[in-house]
Amino acid sequence: MSRCYFWVENALKTHLRASLVQQNFSRLVNARHKGRGGDGRGEDPNAKPPHFEFLDKRAARAQDLNALSGKILRINAETGEGLPDNPFYTGNPKDNKSRVWDYGLRNPFRFTQNPETGELLVGDVGWNLWEEINTGKGKNFGWPCFEGSMDENLPQPGFESNPDFVSLCQPLYDADNKAVTSPIYSYATDKGGAVVVGPIYNGTAY
Q1: Pairing of strands 4-9, 71-76
Q2: pTM of the prediction?
Q3: Helix (H, G, I), strand (E, B) or coil at 37
């Protein structure tokens, strides 16, 4: 399962965040500095715990721009429509693709904006190998075909070896690290806990 998270703009251009739980638009959880996913520990009382021990074929939706899973979405808070300056805007603000800011994410459980530059920093919780921090507009971060690292995009072994994902992943592998964007920072899952991105401090006191 790949989850998607909203970057919402209201009429005052205030950036808010809300998580989309199981693609159910009726259950938006408003979150000023954090997002919650339907991971069995979040805001959704009907959520079931994730199953990390098996490969989830639904992860392929993270590479489909017409699906909402595995994405950062940037939408109008009042209408839920995509914004015209979104990178995959089709001309129809109601298209799923028109709402997408970034894709190829597994579980962007927390993200934040640099208050000075507006840069979006996304903490993408990994499956079993890498935790990532990603940034950019209109970028493909490679999940489920890739997971980590900073120096180069590493194929995710579980999906790379699965015959059901050859047609999805092989073109990305053949592109020799040019089709997907590497994290700006990553660390091995067994070296620490799940990645969390918090507020950005731009001062000089620390």
Answers
A1: parallel
A2: 0.76
A3: coil
